[in-house]
Automatic annotation (TrEMBL):
InterPro entries the UniProt entry points to: Cit_transptr-like_dom, DASS-Related_Transporters, RCK_C, RCK_C_sf
PANTHER family linked: BASIC AMINO ACID ANTIPORTER YFCC-RELATED
Keywords for this protein: Membrane, Repeat, Transmembrane, Transmembrane helix, Transport
Membrane topology (UniProt): Multi-pass membrane protein
Protein name per UniProt: SLC13 family permease
Short name of any one Pfam family annotated for the protein: CitMHS
């Protein structure tokens, strides 16, 4: 191999390591890989920028806008109200999957899970069921639905775009539907009959009565009239008396050593942990003040809402401190407490770096809640009131989405143009606000697509794809195209679990086409295998964003996804090896 090929290998390995570590944002990893390719003169500047003008990148951006309009217009509210009537956990799981899978074919998966996640948590709390029994099947169903159409997930669009660059005809909007629907039915049957038995049964992650998802950490100021003045924390026995546990004692800017031995003085700040109801009871009886609430300003007698907000995957709030979020001036909200799964926070709330899955207990002016619900940085888990969208806008949004699907499916308009027209129509008809389209856009994915596509060019230009295929075909030997198809599927599935679905598609499409030519077969079934293997990532909580969302909310362990997901991947792989050649023959 040439030195450019070896350099490309090094860039790919480095990118995979960074993707898997999750220590660097995925879009930044893609930009680093792109910069390395340009600096080493493996791709030209024009080729480096070609990914940002690629049809897949433009279409994904437009589909994000369409999905945003469906979500924020309230088009899904009638369905959520219907699901709220369900009382039996197994029926809720089945109903969630049956509702989400068809919607996932047209609506952004993350938006779907974010919409149905609070509903699932409330029903689980009402029925005394662990959310772990419901949330993982819900996330999997979103993926099963997404692969059923060309526009259902970004990796399908990316696969189609890359396949066209290799001279293949474009896939139709519903060309994946037959295979996707059969796999979805089989997958849901597996989850109901076998997968539910593998799910954890006793995870305490449901919302307790009163709304909290766990033990919050908050700051309480000792007042001059508090009965705790002059008392040592150890002697106060806060855990026994109130069910509240002191973590730290802050005096001014100092963190006191051995806080349990300190005598409390006026103005001291106690960092405590406990269920919110118990914290409030302790605050009343000990005559303490909530430190964050002191800074909360109210306009007259406007009502307030106590809301629980979970930091969403890919949220701009990740890694930032509370003061940097601007919740006070954007939504007139003050964070009273924070809950982090599996970890006890010991810093002041203002000094805490937020992480995905953190749950914030926030006091919000009622007028600020509608805008807060549309912020993709957070998922509203619970609140005092519920807002209803305009049914007129809901019907308009649904009609526009149907028009886009029909126009692209009937080949009246190219998919990117139809999607852009639909996004423009939703903006003009007020399905989302003028700024919502930019705030709700998943820019990380768009930047990732634009920056990672040139890596596929580098693989082809350096001859790396040919070297990989020669080695792979040596393993397959003379076992025919079906063995080669199985190799492509399994390799794509493995890369997806390590680095995500879009980067794995970029790496695998050119390899799949070359493998097909080496096996003297039509490349289309091999490209389809890449699309399906990449879009159905079940084995880890990091392979797909919806898995990450339910991982935090459901209280799962990493191994829970492996126990349920690996057999499901094996089922999908087995069925795909049988069905793909039926729908896309090796020798048409």
């Amino acid at each position: 191999m040439s030195w450019q090929a070896w350099a490309t290998v090094a860039i790919i390995v480095g990118a995979m390591a960074l993707f898997a570590s999750e220590k660097v944002r995925i879009d930044l990893v893609a930009l680093l890989a792109l910069a390395a390719l340009v600096v080493l003169h493996i791709v030209t500047p024009e080729e480096a920028l070609s990914g940002f003008s690629n049809e897949a990148t433009v279409t994904v951006a437009a589909m994000f806008a369409l999905s945003l309009g469906i979500e924020r217009s309230g088009a899904l509210e009638p369905l959520t109200r219907l699901l709220m009537r369900i009382r039996k956990p197994w029926l809720l799981t089945l109903a969630m999957m049956l509702a989400i899978a068809p919607l996932g074919a047209f609506v952004k998966n993350i938006a779907l899970v974010a919409t149905f996640l609070p509903l699932a948590l409330r029903v689980c709390q009402r029925t005394g069921t662990s959310p772990a029994r419901v949330l993982m099947p819900m996330a999997y169903a979103a993926q099963m639905g997404g692969v059923c159409t060309l526009i259902g997930t970004s990796s399908n669009l990316l696969t189609d775009s890359l396949a066209q660059k290799h001279g293949l005809p474009p896939f139709g909007v519903f060309e994946f539907t037959k295979l996707g629907a059969l796999l979805a039915v089989a997958g849901m049957a597996y989850l109901m009959l076998i997968g539910r038995k593998l799910l954890p049964k006793h995870i305490d992650a449901a919302l307790p009565e009163g709304g909290e998802v766990g033990k919050y950490v908050t700051e309480l100021i000792v007042g001059e009239d508090s009965p705790l003045l002059g008392t040592r924390i150890a002697d106060a026995q806060l855990g026994d008396k109130y069910g509240v546990y002191p973590l730290e004692l802050l005096r001014g800017e100092r963190r006191m050593w051995s806080p349990r031995e300190q005598q409390l003085a006026a103005g001291d700040v106690l960092l405590v942990r406990g269920d919110w109801e118990k914290i409030e009871e302790f605050q009343r009886r000990a005559r303490l003040r909530n430190a964050p609430e002191q800074h909360y300003e109210r306009d007259g007698d406007r009502p307030r809402v106590l809301a629980e907000l979970m930091v969403a995957p890919g949220s701009p709030a990740e890694g930032r401190r509370m003061a940097e979020l601007g919740l006070d001036w954007r939504y007139r909200a003050t964070v009273l407490a924070v809950h982090r799964r599996g970890q006890v926070l010991r810093d002041k709330l203002s000094n805490t770096d937020l992480a995905v899955g953190d749950v914030l207990l926030a006091l919000v002016d009622e007028g600020g809640m509608p805008k807060l619900r549309t912020d993709d940085a957070f998922i509203v888990l619970s609140e005092r009131d519920d807002a209803r969208g305009s049914m007129r806008k809901a019907w308009i949004a649904a009609a526009i989405m149907v028009s886009v699907v029909v126009a692209s499916g009937m080949h009246w308009l190219p998919i990117p143009i139809a999607a852009l027209c639909g996004a423009t129509a939703m903006a003009l008809t007020g399905c989302f606000g003028r700024k919502d389209i930019y705030e709700g856009m998943d820019w990380k994915i768009i930047i990732l697509l634009g920056a990672i596509l040139p890596l596929g060019l580098a693989i082809e230009k350096t001859g790396l794809s040919t070297v990989v295929v020669q080695g792979a075909m040596g393993l397959v030997g003379s076992h025919g195209p079906l063995a080669a198809l199985l190799m492509v599927y399994l390799l794509t599935a493995l890369l997806t679990e390590l680095m995500g679905h879009n980067p794995s598609v970029v790496l695998m499409v050119s390899i799949a086409v070359t493998v097909a030519h080496a096996a003297h077969a039509d490349p289309r079934p091999f490209v389809v295998a890449v699309a399906f293997a990449a879009a159905t990532s079940f084995a880890t909580p990091v392979g797909y964003p919806t898995n990450t969302m339910v991982y935090y909310a459901g209280g799962y362990r990493f191994t829970d996804f492996m126990k349920v997901g690996i057999p499901l991947i094996a089922l999908f792989c087995t069925l795909s090896m049988w069905l793909i050649p039926q729908f896309w023959p090796f020798h048409p």
